[in-house]
Specification:
It contains two helices and 24 strands. The chain is mainly beta and 254 residues long. The protein has three domains: 78 residues, Immunoglobulin-like (Sandwich); 78 residues, Immunoglobulin-like (Sandwich); 52 residues, no CATH class. The chain is rod-shaped, with a radius of gyration of 42 Å. Keywords: Signal. This is BIG2 domain-containing protein. It comes from Myroides albus.
Length: 254
């Protein structure tokens, strides 16, 4: 009986010794300190970032992490119609508006947020309608206002290529008629329309020749028929010299 009690006492001491020496059980280091828990950190360098429609933005450029890898983070957008993620961490703007993006740890509730603003792009013609004479040219750049968009993103089209021709940003009038010029931001429905009226400007002498008496005078403007031309815009030249159109005297212009 005494022997049995002694064996039970020895066994109890052995089990207590094993339990006390188990570092994992009490989470105690060799130095006797309890290790601090690992804390994940996810932060964005900026709280707001602006992009354009169809622009891609790598979210990792402004993301900082600690004790967590990028692969252990989920990225979401509160308003995917404005901007959404493609290829994991690349954000693409879709239309003008705002959304909140979230970087959420897959292992815990640790997360960070950033506001994304998709800016408005706009193209506007300075006037609704212009008039060009046949063979006249017009550079469209000075009459177009661009907001958050560059010229290489603009597509110019005419609804009738017989009346006008477009070369780069230059519009060339070919023959009489009306044409609509559409200026569209590529890959969007953002368009501005310019109405172009092409007219024929023409000067025709009424006669091939006239007879004049000595010391007679004549108004040269009376000798021509004008089509879509203001008489005040006409300049007369004689031997490469501009002259007064009001009269001829003694067979000389003056």
């Amino acid at each position: 009986m005494k022997l049995r009690i002694l064996l039970v006492f020895i066994l109890s001491l052995f089990m207590f010794s094993c339990s006390s020496s188990d570092d994992g059980g009490n989470n105690i280091t060799d130095g006797g300190e309890v290790p601090k828990p690992v804390v994940e950190e996810i932060t964005f360098d900026v709280l707001t970032h602006t992009i354009l429609p169809n622009e891609e933005y790598d979210i990792l450029k402004n993301l900082r992490v600690k004790n967590i890898s990028f692969e252990e983070i989920n990225f979401t957008s509160d308003n995917p119609e404005v901007a959404s993620f493609v290829d994991g961490t690349n954000l693409v703007g879709h239309k003008t508006g705002e959304t909140i993006i979230r970087a959420q740890s897959k292992k815990s509730k640790v997360n960070a947020t950033m506001k994304i603003v998709v800016a408005e792009q706009k193209i506007v013609f300075a006037q609704d309608e212009i008039v060009l004479g046949t063979l006249e040219e017009l550079d469209l750049m000075p009459i177009v206002s661009l907001i958050n968009v560059e010229w290489d993103q603009i597509e110019l089209k005419a609804d009738n290529s017989e009346n006008v021709r477009i070369e780069g940003t230059k519009l060339i009038a070919l023959k009489e008629g009306e044409v609509l010029i559409n200026a569209t931001i590529k890959n969007t429905n953002n368009t501005s329309i310019l109405k172009v009226k092409v007219i024929e400007r023409k000067i025709t002498f009424k006669e091939e020749s006239i007879d004049m008496a000595v010391d007679a005078s004549v108004d040269l403007n009376d000798l021509v028929e004008l089509k879509n031309i203001d008489v005040e815009t006409i300049k007369w030249k004689y031997n490469d010299t501009y002259v007064n159109p009001l009269c001829i005297l003694n067979n000389r212009f003056f």
